[in-house]
Amino acid sequence: MRPIHSDHLRVDGLSHSYGDRRVLSDVGLAVGATERIGLIGENGAGKSTLLRVLAGTETPDRGIITRPLRTGMLWQELLFDPGETVGAVFEDALADIRSIERELESAASAMHADDTTAAERYSAALEAAERADVWGADARRDALRDGLGVSAIGLRRRLGEISGGQRSRVALAALLLQRPDALLLDEPTNHLDDQAAAFLEVQLRAWVGPVLIASHDRSFLDSVATGLVDLDAARSLHDGRGASVTVFGGGFSDYRSHKAEERERWQRQYDDEQERLGVLRRTVAVTARTVAHGRGPRDNDKFIQGFKGARNDQAIARRVHNAEQRLASLERDQVRKPPAVLRFAGIPTGSQVLADGVLLQLAGVAVAGRLAAVSLRVEPRSRMLVTGANGAGKSTLLGVLAARLETDAGTVHRRRGLRVGLLEQDVRFPDPTRSARELYATTLGERRVEQVPLSSLGLLPPRDENRPVGALSVGQQRRLALALVIARPPHVFLLDEPTNHLSLGLATELEEALESYPGAVVIASHDRWLRRRWSGEELELIGSS
């Protein structure tokens, strides 16, 4: 299936499945040459799949795709071997520019060799070089590295030697350096601090060409997006046509209000139709057995009983027939039942609460090159938000608190019997072939699974519980990782960028549920919305020396 090349992004009648699971169904979407559209929806709704199809790395079952010739995509994982260097990533992004540069040099050499076509060739090469700004390429590379917070990472460093967040920012800088005609961005702010996010916003607002952004970051979308597209698989159940895209011209507040009103209308229509169906079914079942006169005929009526009885039978037959027709029509065209909203069910109880004293205490703890000396106390009901620029050591601090990292200085005191749980920023399951249900059962044990079934947490829809975890989206894998922690609540719950890869709805529900968590909570986050709403203790990390 070859795409049509144009100055805009567009899909028409797009459907795509993985095995017997339909992910996209009859999707229609257009992003104009001057538009920056935010793509939103629940985890597993198909946002990343749609981006991959638009990028040309996946072939849909059917549909028409229109896109610019040079369409670039930001992946959630950098598509380079860990042994490659940071510099190699940038040189790959500059491949077209380097090719123009080589052609210019070759054309200049040809002029010295008295080639009769050299002047025309050199003129064309010079025009292409000026258009691509060949001479400013290295300066642009350095400006992007600085703006996205990776200038301190040497170009000779291997990708396997830097963090996942740093790799993501290197990939983003390389994509912007490449200057494609259209941008497809999959969660671009997941690993950006405030300064880097503000830098990216400026870059995108000045971008020439269509931009489609799958993101959960409300602050970012409010700043950048010219419109929103809701990719909601549930909508196909509503209209029966498989259309699963709705366009919103406003911001997130408008979107959420509209969606809530839409669902209320859907529920009311469903309830009304079910009531009418009930009435019609009773009519069909009861009318044929019930005669309207309800009493025996008087003596002076008996002589007309046969005549009236025949007419009554015909009337009843007509009423039953009409009711059957209306029932069949309504059953055929009825609105499907709205699927249950996937909600975070809250933190289940069952943890032995340590009510008094200090649970964890760090005094002058440091990790060489990763975490400057820090001191803190975690008590049974602590609520602590850890902030700081990328590289300041937020993930390292959580690793120390979780006893997963050794320290180079300071002391760590842990309460005896303390149980600590960590929701890591980058989820990795050792065996991607195992199902979510199997992993849940193996991790928790039979007794706990009976007490807290995976389905009771509202984090994965039942249809996905038996799928291999490797087939789940990144967001769904993070939901499963969250379920594995909260099903047996730890005394201290550590969350590293908890809203990354989660839909906005679930991220909000998680934040609200954590307010009543039966233990201590420590969160490391860049999320500007979360930080603005935070009412607990805050710890800002400055960085290691």
Automatic annotation (TrEMBL):
Pfam family, one: ABC_tran
Keyword set, alphabetical order: ATP-binding, Coiled coil, Nucleotide-binding, Repeat
Top-level taxon in the UniProt lineage: Bacteria
Tagged with keyword Nucleotide-binding: yes
PROSITE patterns listed in its UniProt record: ABC_TRANSPORTER_1 (PS00211), ABC_TRANSPORTER_2 (PS50893)
Matches recorded under Gene3D superfamilies: P-loop containing nucleotide triphosphate hydrolases
Coiled coil feature spans: 256-283
Domain ABC transporter: 9-258, 353-542
Classification via CDD domains: ABCF_EF-3
Gene Ontology terms for molecular function: ATP binding; ATP hydrolysis activity
PANTHER family: ATP-BINDING CASSETTE SUB-FAMILY F MEMBER 1, ATP-BINDING TRANSPORT PROTEIN-RELATED
Name under which the protein is recorded: ABC-F family ATP-binding cassette domain-containing protein
Organism for this UniProt entry: Orlajensenia flava
